Amino acid sequence: MKQTKSYLAKTVEDLKPSGIRKFFDLAAGMEGVISLGVGEPDFVTSWSAREAAILSLEQGYTSYTANAGLLELRNEVSSYMKKQFHVDYNPKNEIIITVGASQALDIALRAILDPGDEVIVIEPSFVSYAPLVSLAGGKPVAVQATEEYDFKIQTHQLEKAVTDRTKAIMLCSPNNPTGTMLGENELLELATFIEKHDLLVLSDEIYAELAYDEPYVSFAAIEGMRHRTLLINGFSKGFAMTGWRLGFVCANEELTAAMLKIHQYAMMCAPTMAQYAALEALKGGREDVEDMKKSYRRRRNYFVQSLNDIGLSCHIPGGAFYAFPSIVSTGLSSEQFAEQLLIEEKVAVVPGNVFGISGEGHIRCSYASSMEHLQEAVKRIKRFVEK
Amino acid sequence: MKLSEKELEVVEILEKDARISSEDVAKMIGLSLQETDELIKKLEKEKVLVHYTTVVDWSKIDGHEGVTAMIDVKVTPKRGVGFDEVAERIYRFKEVKSVYLMSGAYDLSVIIEGKSMNEVARFVSNKLSTLDSVLSTTTHFILKKYKHDGTIFEPLADDDKRIVVSP
């Protein structure tokens, strides 16, 4: 066949492959690697949730659910969000169960963006944000949060990025990859900015359960922000359910109806057995979640202190399970550091620059790994840095 | 005694892994090494931390012979000392690994380790059931240990199933 033109969509052709891919390929072929490159919990889903999914299969619950998800699950999500995060959403028309928080991000962006609309993405950020904005026809506008402010975005930086095409801002607190969590005062300041410029906020709160030092404040709980927020959360991190692909989005009735249109045509509904597992995870009480949180917190303390002892300066991340130390003292770039560390000491980390230019000079280390692995990783990183 | 938050953390950490170094414990709870050592000493002195042991899977060791039995014991409590006196008479035997006072159909749960079923049987008939306060005994032999004190002996799939690098 004679091919005279590319059949690929321009938007897709223009997307850069994720920089994480390269390190995956490098590390995947090696033996004896300790991986701190994993963006998911090291816990397995609680047995009670797994058992509930098995039971749902045995009983033959293998058909579609309502587009927005099982009403019973939405009811539980609603009371969970009220109890844990003090936000009130009607399970009938303000909550959609999605295929992971990722799909929630996708339908949220598609529901609000017209071609050329701008979305502010605070970098360093989760690698999917900017591509998802582009795929939804929007234009991602990166703003750099810097180490100087513990990677907390400053309003004067946002002011410079805002234009009359700006429609929304993507927020992720606690943050992947920096672990930074915004406190109530910082959210209040952000809310003033949002109000002033009449913007929406896509608040990715997937790490909300993993806030270690201060109680978590949802952006939707800030006065006046509920109707401007598309609140995205899910079961992956807090409930150790990444592989189930189950998340949800909460928003006002108008936004939810718009997202549901996309969801019903593009996805129909989230997987049924996963919904039954999530139902049990929410009903099953808080013990598993609290135990995991405690364990992460101890490992964070151990790991961040150890990095600082080695001479890789690292702020204390308030949430999630990532440490984002500076490697500038080694004279290497993020990519050089990550590549050499992997080859010489077999420790996999993710170079900070894949999360945005302000991530350069840093590496992302996930401490969602056993204490034994962390201890060994610290030994190896120390040896590498001292070489 | 009421424990502070840090003390409680130390207890939880050591209960999971008694061999962890004080340096690592110190980092995990955010105290100095000296403070951590003092805290552990205090908890040991107060007998909150009673003793450090190791969970051993003896079934892995060639030539090891041994059986474990759980014995339900009904006893007559004595005025003044209740069950304590008979419990003490039982736990002094070195074959006895645990003694618990139970609610329900019997009074004391006694765990015994011996070299053989015969040895355990001899202990029950000669030592245990001949005690004055003991009314009856029911002996159950343990066939296989799957999980002991929170530790699974042969985890089915302990390997990390996560892909090595993910966003």
Automatic annotation (TrEMBL), chain B:
Pfam families: AsnC_trans_reg, HTH_24. It comes from the Bacteria. The keyword Transcription regulation applies. PANTHER family: HTH-TYPE TRANSCRIPTIONAL REGULATOR PTR2 (PTHR43413:SF7), TRANSCRIPTIONAL REGULATOR, ASNC FAMILY (PTHR43413). SMART domains: HTH_ASNC. Residues 3-65 form the HTH asnC-type domain. It comes from Robertmurraya beringensis. Keywords: DNA-binding, Transcription, Transcription regulation. This is Lrp/AsnC family transcriptional regulator.
